[in-house]
């Protein structure tokens, strides 16, 4: 240390710690000349002693003015060393960097000034300290003192210039530090970081694109910054990188795709738009690299399809179509199960557009990878069934298309119809709101006859009789009114003349027995008018209730629609279709006279040409009082013949059908009686309990009153006797015998 003091005059030593900047500056200039002389003479030991003295006595001094003098002195030494300064940098630079965190803002300011002067001298030689300098500048960019910030910005620009022209800069060592700092929220630090990313990306020899996945999330995080300037800078940097990706032959799409998927769900609108735009480009450019990320990408796209911002919706839809058009196979790493899982989750979305696209994906996978989809059918089947209750008709129609696609296989067809009936049974509102839509669509997508036959088979064995009746009534109304079932109606019209119609009639009859009005409608449709008339006459008082009359009202109104045009035209030949006329009059007799349906049917029957009923031998036979259990095979209206019992493939055994109908109706009647009896016993039991409780209360009150009364006297007793009502004998009047005597 004595060597250093002998080389530096006492005045210089004293002025370096002076409170006046001018004195410190002059002392530094003298120190610079001294070091130049020592350098020219090659006295490196004294130079080292001078540097050591400046660090210990000045840079590390507890007094601020000493620290300021030490910083300006170290800068002066570096200037004096000139080209030989590089060998002393390991001693000079660290204390300057440490001063960046000094409590005194003026010390921090002079530290920036000192390092600026040092950097100007050594240029690229101080790159070995870059990470430490970068870290210090990162903190100084957010310094509370404006002067320190200005000095740090000047130093920052110089360091950027040095780095861009240096061939010793290591991007590999710098990226971990950059990645760590990208999570800082301070706007000044963010601006500092974006500036460095932009500068480094502009250097041809530095491959920032290769390290983009390390700091991409940080850039996207800045897109939601409250500062408009920072958002613009981050967006500009991202746009530049995206352009480089388009022009680059080799890009790591996978790691970045994971980041983009997360950012596509950002609450910030601008961030979502940028993320979905990047995903769109990745889907177009990524190709095979993105196959294993398709499920994640789809999970990000589907919610954005329903985004409140139109730009996001447009890009999301375009990306979705692009992704769906890519042809990949499971052997290429395409995970069908993962895609189905994403689509299943999105079926619970609150937005209709997202649910629709999720269903489109399931349908697409079913068409392209049917075998794989059926392997995961158990995972999605319940969700697809629940979707039938969706509030959107479009969603329900798409769900039915998916179900129909699955039901192409016989085992899945049976399973689908069973589950549909189960859902209708469990949710009555589903049958009311969606029943017609679901059944009609299934008849279009699958064979209508096949659907109705399967439904009838299931309902035939239904234990819940009320549900079976309701379901049959719904199916019957759909059969009579839906344009999609016109071929089925045509087939039923020929039930008495062709085998296909007969088999369908018999198949439906077994379950249609749960509803008298459904059976009558089926007979009218099949032109089995005699059987319809017999069914009407078989009805008893219990059958004619409000529900029955409501169904009858609907049927009467349906008779006036184009579907039953053939029936109305047959009324022009009453002699040939006498059983039709008897059936209609039978229905008329069941209707209340003041009802609108009664008036409609009566008006229609008044238009029938006049003829004599006496010529109708068939009517006579039907009303001759023959019990229904002995109902024989007879010819239907016209020339259509029923089964005579010996040719089962040529006709219908209506006797057996009638017996079947009565058996089912007896079950319904028995259930109704049981329900009424239970209700009666329940109400009677509650009433008797109330009566007993009332009597007990009255007895208690009488006992209390008697206890409070005084004992009765003889006078009061005789008075009480006089006040008693006369006995029965006294009320009969005086004895006549005694009077006469």
Question: What does this protein look like?
Answer:
By secondary structure, this protein is an all-alpha fold. Helix content is 71%, strand content 0%. The protein is elongated, with a radius of gyration of 50 Å. The relative contact order is 0.03.
Describe the secondary structure blueprint for this structure.
Elements lengths: L1 H6 L2 H6 L5 H21 L2 H16 L4 H18 L7 H10 L6 H18 L7 H11 L5 H20 L5 H11 L5 H16 L9 H11 L5 H20 L5 H11 L5 H18 L7 H11 L5 H16 L10 H11 L5 H17 L1 H6 L1 H10 L6 H14 L3 H17 L1 H18 L2 H13 L4 H17 L4 H8 L5 H14 L3 H10 L3 H10 L7 H13 L6 H6 L7 H13 L5 H11 L10 H6 L31 H55 L5 H10 L4 H4 L4 H5 L1
Helix pairs in contact: 3-5, 4-5, 4-6, 5-6, 5-7, 7-9, 8-9, 8-10, 11-13, 12-13, 12-14, 14-15, 14-16, 15-17, 16-17, 16-18, 18-19, 19-22, 22-24, 23-24, 23-25, 24-25, 24-26, 25-26, 25-28, 26-29, 29-30, 29-31, 30-33, 30-36, 31-34, 33-34
Fill in the keyword field for this structure:
741 residues, mainly alpha, 39 helices, 0% strand, elongated, disordered C terminus
